[in-house]
Amino acid sequence: MKMKTSLSQDSILLILILNVFKVVSNQPLHLSPYLEQGNIETARRDSLVNDPTGVIPTSYSGLFTVDEVLKNHLWFWFIPAINSDPKAPLVIWLTSGPGCSTMLNMFYGNGPLKLTKNSNGNDSYERRVNSWAQTFSMLYIDNIVYTGYSYSDSGNKGIKTTKDYYTQDLYSFVQQFYKMFSEMKEKDLYVGGVGSAFKYAESLAYKIHEDLQAKRDNILLKGIYAGSPLLDGRTQLRHIYEPFYSLGFISYKQMINYTQEDEMLNNLNEKKHYLNLESVIYKMSNLNLENINTFTLSPDTEINNVMSTDAIKSLLHVGNNTFELCNLEIYTQSADDVYQPFQTTELVTLLENYKVLLFTAVFDGIISSPGLEAVLMDMPWSMQSAYNDSVRKVWREDNVVKGFYTYVGNLCRVVIHNAGMHITNDQLNVTVQMMEDFWHYGCISNTPQ
């Protein structure tokens, strides 16, 4: 009887222990406490993404606490260069939208994974043959809470949509990342993303630049990059109808009328310039503004499905957190910051000191070349006159046109052919070559003319 009682107690104890471990495994992996205690190897070990199928390449995932008062936790997925090149740069990819997770680009852009269906017909993923992660160490950061798996213990109070606040969070993240992966501090750093991510990239790069100038840090910042960059929303949206007219989608009269109507909307409410964009979406509702050459939309539902499975949550150490691919609340709160009048000081400083790559796509219905050029040609930097007088060069391979480019000073300006808003998805191999050229030469190289 004693043995029976003893076994029963042991069984109860075992069940309790297993339940404790189950609770722990359902919690997101917070890495900041490890770093504070100096347990770097434990942090790296616990954050390792161990995919038993081998589909996901060697990578790391977890959360850094970037605001100890609000308890803001930013989630990341770090993929060291698959080709194991010891000189491979670190490329940071930031949230766009605003309010959309970097996982949009992981599965529908430059990441090493792409969507597929499994044998049961459910949404799944497989390895890409090529990706930016083949050449570069890719660090995807969902840098605003409630995008992706990032979150705050303070609820919506943790949402930061003004430059000083989100820059501080990002900078805290970068410092912790380098503490955990100290070997990456010896690599060249490039910061960027697409669309509104330019705002975050520019601010973070400028903050790093200030610390470098003050000799407070030794990060090897080499450049910033942005696809379909939103520099000055008011100016760029003023030119948004020009591509539709030049491609024959609207008449000259429509272009003039639409532009005047949008200007009236903006003048009625100076702060909310994004009303212009909503007006464009309404007027051009018969087109897919992501890519006006097709009606194929980004697979938002499929990405949400994959990222919400128990299997992927376990691999990425996010516990029971809810995944948000695109958060409308974040978009609404961020709009004033994203569309505020463009302050040129930071970008001009970066242009004078680092490489800058800005690329757009011919069939992007939102961020067009005419709008971006209007901003760049009015930007007071040392090479402004040279840029304004420059000519485009054709980027081609044999008889295939990949795009067009201009290279003046530190600025590499590229227009990608046969692509829409999701440039890295539409022309993945072209953008891989573009980034490799940007890394090695500052812009597109060896183009036959």
TrEMBL record:
InterPro entries: AB_hydrolase_fold (IPR029058), Peptidase_S10 (IPR001563). Keywords: Carboxypeptidase, Glycoprotein, Hydrolase, Protease, Signal. GO terms for biological process: proteolysis. It comes from the Eukaryota. GO terms for molecular function: serine-type carboxypeptidase activity. Residues 1-25 form the signal peptide. Belongs to the peptidase S10 family. This is Carboxypeptidase. It comes from Biomphalaria glabrata. The lineage of its organism: Eukaryota, Metazoa, Spiralia, Lophotrochozoa, Mollusca.
